[in-house]
Amino acid sequence: MDSQPYQPIRPGVGMEENFLSIDDILLSHERLPVRTECVFPRLGFLEKSSDSQDIAEGTKMELPLWLSKGLYERNRKVLSIELPKVYRDGWRTVFNADPNVVDLHKMGPYYYGLGSQMLHFENPENTEIGQTLLQVQLQAHLREAHLREAHLREAHLREAHLQAHLREVHLQAHLREAHLQAHLQAISERSISRPSSRPISERPISERPISERPSSRPSSRPSSRPISERPWWMDIEK
Asked: φ, ψ for residue 79 (rounded to 5)?
């Protein structure tokens, strides 16, 4: 059986959730500050700071997002959701001024997702929360686009500098080659024009004057050897 490579599933958009997405599963376990509007019988174990078997009305506690959404009803007040501090008016003012000065990951790894899920709960500040989320996300996209553009400009500048450096290296190599050839030619010309200090008889044949070079023709002078030393065939011809 061929195994398919894992491809991460994108989280849901806005108030929707995708429970096949790991990010949405982790987001659903984010804890929210809530206040109970009625008694929760036999659920005292959820509130570790109390020894009572029940959760009394008006108790402030933290519940995961999935449980808060399951218990929340608009028509029947079971519990009320309090805004996390990062979505309150003070932080919204900071985000509206300059969202780049705040590390959203430190404030909450799911700032956009949790903020979108907060719109499920009835709150008079939902409109401002939605506007802040849109503005912060827009500013983040613009900042990312500016950074990408700056990286592209820097890459183009590096490429231009590299090409200029390569051209300079090639030019220097050609100049060195030309200087080397000129130097070798000067050495060869100097060695040819310089007279040799050795005697003519000790010089190579190619360096001797033409008049001092041995002749390659056979000598036409008669042999000065005695007749007795001449070959026998010379006497026969006579």
From this structure: -155, 155
Are the beta carbons of 58 and 107 closer than 8 angstroms? no
Packing angle, helices 89-97 and 126-193, rounded to 10: 30
210 — phi, psi (to 5°)?
-60, -35
pTM: 0.54
pLDDT per residue rounded down to tens, the chain (238 residues)? 456 665 666 665 556 667 778 888 888 889 999 999 999 888 888 777 778 888 899 999 999 999 888 888 878 888 899 998 888 888 888 877 776 667 777 777 788 888 888 888 888 888 888 888 888 888 777 888 888 888 999 999 999 999 999 999 999 999 999 999 988 888 887 766 655 556 666 666 666 666 666 666 555 555 555 555 566 666 555 4
Closest CA to 69 of 7, 8, 27: 27
**Phi, psi angle pair for 31, to nearest 5°:** -90, 140
List CB contacts of 40: < 8 A, sequence separation 6 or more. Answer: 46, 54, 55
In sequence order, the 6+-apart residues with CB closer than 8 A to the CB of 91 are 85, 102, 107
What is the Cα–Cα distance from 32 to 26, expressed in whole angstroms? 14
Structural domains of the chain ordered from first start: 7-82 (1.20.58.2050), 85-160 (1.20.58.2050)
